[in-house]
Amino acid sequence: MLILKLTLVPLALLVFGIVERLHGPRVAGWMAGFPIVAGPILVFLAMDHGADFTAASALGAYFGLVPWLAFTACYAWCSHSWNWLLSLLASLALWVAMAFVALWLQSGPRWLEALPFLVLIGAIVFYPRGEPSDEEREHVWWGLPARMLAGAGLTLLITQFASLMGTRWSGVFTTFPVMGSIIAISTHVQYGHHAVRETVAGMSTGLPSVAVFCLTVYVLLGQVDIWPAFALALTASCAVHALTWLLFKKRLPRALSRRHRTGLD
Length: 265
Description:
Blueprint: H1 2-23, H2 25-32, H3 38-49, H4 51-63, H5 65-78, H6 84-106, H7 115-126, H8 143-160, H9 162-174, H10 178-191, H11 193-206, H12 208-220, H13 226-264
């Protein structure tokens, strides 16, 4: 299992890095919305701690998407004026504050479970989306290895200390912006703030698939066995991610068309 923890997320980051180089940061950001980090972590928790612990953690992960969105939006805003370190510190501070809010929401009435989905819909609708950039970008040699090492380290830390944190905190940390922070920082360092904005726009579009995955695991675990629950959660997540791709693809040509008309003028 240790080998999986050290290799699964880094390999996903490698794939996303290749996609980013081929298709740009916005497409890579949309792909990062898939539960490639939260999914394996919840599987590891189920194997280590059982269905009840994992179901409660999945609910925490679902609510943890609110601070996740706060982190990425804050980073995109700060990157316009600050370097990557100051942007990261400000975004982490906001994440911590919103993590306590997410923790409080878990103990509230059941209707609050709709709140993360409403926040996700608001992010998709209202997040400012600049036109995709077609500028040439220089790819530094250390970009992909740095992402992979950071992804392995963060995933190992979260899974190793989950039992000490309890179900709620381990759930919130399950959707800690591992992928978002690594991609945002490396994109900021290599390509600048405009690319960060494109990446975050893609992430906000693709993130509902993570929400569906976590919520499905929360609902099904305890009613069916672990592996059927995760299989159904993955199926639902893939279906939602395909739907968000239709929205993503619809918006992307529109933005490119505006850029093309502007260039003609």
